[in-house]
DNA sequence: TTTATCTATCGTAATATTGCAATATAGAAA
DNA sequence: TTTCTATATTGCAATATTACGATAGATAAA
């Protein structure tokens, strides 16, 4: 017990939960927003920008990368991280499709 | 160590992470989708529907409720859970605003 | 009342996440 | 080569999450 029973849910539900989990942390939200603010992705000033140690940032970047929300490219000495629109689109369209159906559920609550 | 440093991030970033965390679990995604499928919110058949024990479902419902994604109303013997559109709208509009900015970041990666 | 049903809570075990110091690795610069 | 700078990995401690059996509470039905 303790481990999520991911085998009992659909592949789509599991995929979505991976994407959402990657975004479900204030530090990772802050990283994503920083990558957007700096229109170019010349990166890790992130370590200087956020109040977290370098290994912690590195770990968060890894999770965002594993989920498919960012990509990383070696650029000389440094690494250039940038957002991968596809993952974000999956999240967005999920909620865009979900929400109209909420209104349809006529509920007396 | 181990605790999320939520005090270092903005209130908005923390609020969003709470909403996303509530949705970042396949069981809770399945619960939300079930509440939508059953257009009325006469609820806990959820326990019979999902491959999880009743206390586990109850716990997941509590988290969805704490995050503000569902409401629960006593209805005789049972409890009527239904979706609260507001929380979902916050998630949706966050990604709707975020995504156009991804394209603007001209990145060679 | 007694019994059945529905839901919540408690207690606990297994597992996952978070954060960081220390260290490793890899390329750039000297 | 050596040194510096950027990033990743390891190892560990603190904390959080997940799941469920046992139990409690509250209403419904008998």
Write structural notes for this entry:
2 copies of one chain form a homodimer. The first copy, chain A, has 109 residues and is mainly alpha-helical. Helices cover 58% and strands 11% of the residues of chain A. Chain A is built from 5 helices and 2 strands; from the N terminus they run ααααββα. The first copy, chain A, has helices spanning 11-23, 26-37, 46-49, 54-67, 85-104; strands at residues 70-75, 78-83. A two-stranded antiparallel sheet of chain A has the order 1-2. In chain A, helix 1 runs antiparallel to helix 4. The radius of gyration of chain A is 17 Å and the shape is globular. Chain A starts with 10 loop residues before the first helix and ends in a 5-residue tail after the last helix. In chain A, 26% of the residues are buried. The mean pLDDT of chain A is 89. Chains A and B meet through helix 1, helix 2, strand 1, strand 2 and helix 5 of A and helix 1, helix 2, strand 1, strand 2 and helix 5 of B. Chain A binds a DNA duplex (30 and 30 nucleotides) through helix 4.
């Amino acid at each position: 017990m303790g481990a999520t029973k991911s085998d009992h849910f659909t592949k789509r539900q599991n995929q979505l939960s991976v994407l959402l989990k990657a975004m479900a942390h204030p530090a990772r939200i802050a990283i994503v927003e920083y990558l957007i603010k700096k229109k170019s992705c010349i990166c890790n000033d992130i370590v200087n920008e956020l109040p977290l140690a370098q290994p912690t940032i590195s770990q968060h970047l890894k999770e965002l990368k594993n989920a498919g929300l960012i990509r990383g490219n070696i650029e000389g000495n440094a690494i250039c991280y940038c957002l991968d629109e596809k993952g974000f689109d999956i999240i967005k369209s999920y909620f865009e499709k979900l929400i109209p159906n909420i209104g349809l559920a006529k509920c007396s609550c």
